[in-house]
Amino acid sequence: MTTSGYTIDREIVDVLLDQEPAISVEAIREAGGGLVAVVLHVEDRRRLKLRALARDLLRLRGGFQVAAISVRGTDGHRDWAVVPLDYLRGLARDLTDLQQQLHLEAVLRRRG
Question: CB burial class (10 A; 0-12, 13-18, 19+) of residue 65?
């Protein structure tokens, strides 16, 4: 169980392809290829802490280009997506900025 709603692993692409039939070689190539991928498992979407996720993604070192993302549905089935790691980093950063902006607007509304 994670406290931030996610876990991040690193996996050799060939092993990932063998373990997850929902991920294709073409998807890995389209996302930038490479020998090792970052694997983001979203365990609980409601508890997902975007600021922590953005921080952890920015701290990753090692020349990773591809991120494989799994999201657990309400039925327990995992849906997979493969994207460029830079895209995922930017998305997490943008969502964090939006979350902070919405919080600030809510605080200002209460005081105004």
Answer: middle
The overall pTM is greater than 0.85: no
Distance CA 47, CA 59 (A): 21
- Where does the pLDDT of residue 1 fall: very low under 50, low under 70, confident under 90, or very high at 90 and above? very low
Cβ proximity of 43 and 3 under 8 Å = no
CB count in 10 Å sphere of residue 54: 21
* The token pair that represents 32 in the structure block: 């930038």
Give per-residue pLDDT as tens, 64-77: 999 999 998 888 88
